[in-house]
Each structure stands twice: as structure tokens, then as C-alpha cells.
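Predict the 3D structure for this chain.
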Amino acid sequence: MRISTKGHYGLRSLIDVALNQAQGPVTLNDIAKRQSISVKYLWQVLNPLKTSGFLKVTRGINGGYVLARQPDKITMLDVLTALEGPISILKCLTQEEACPRARSCVARTVWADVNRVVEKALADTTLAKLLRECAHLSEVTNYTI
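Done. Predicted structure below.
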């Protein structure tokens, strides 16, 4: 299983919005600048997040993005599934027809167990948890001499 840049940038963008929305809706340009992502590509990432109900957008001079859900209601599994599709370390786990041996493969049970562990780890990681880690990192890296 490999997470694409779309999944990676999607999660970074949600963190960015969550950290900056207190000052008002966060613009596409501001996210792109802070995250070093092209505006054109970022729009392709944020649009599915809006469609999936993670972000709300307001138009106009003071428009931009805000979270549509509380951070503790957004899991990494939900975000990655919205951007990447079903989480699967092997194609045969979600598409039996992909392998003629899928029903008789003993190793497939091991891969299914690994896949469940990955899904659980992603489901147990909320945006709120990541925001707490951001706060901790900024405490550790911001110091005065």
C-alpha cells in the first residue's frame, strides 16, 4: 500500500485549515503557500474533501475553507478513503476477481490481518490527535536562548 501525494497533501491541508481557521476562512492560496503545493493541484485535493463533507467553503472577498466537522470526528481513515479509495495492501483483499487464487490463498489471511491493523491505526488517528501533536512539536521547537 502506498499513499499518494493526494492523500498526503489532503491530510496536510486539513491540518493547515484546522490550525488557521480561527482567524476566518482559510484561502486556497494561503494553504498552497504554507504547504508548498501548487494551487492547481491543491484544488484537486480540496474539492473531494469538500464533497466528502470534511470542508465547507465560502465564496467572496472573505471566503475560504473551514472544517465542516469537529477535528475529533475526522479520522485519517475517512480522509484517505475519500481521497484514495478503499485502503488495501493487496488488490485481492478488496477485489477477489483480481486473483484466481484469492479464495484458496492461505497467505491472503495474513495480508487481511495486516490490512485490518492498518485500517484500525488510521481509524484511531483523528485530526484532533494530530493537532495535539502539532502543538507539542511547536512547544519543543520554539525556544529562546
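The beta strands are 55-58, 64-67.
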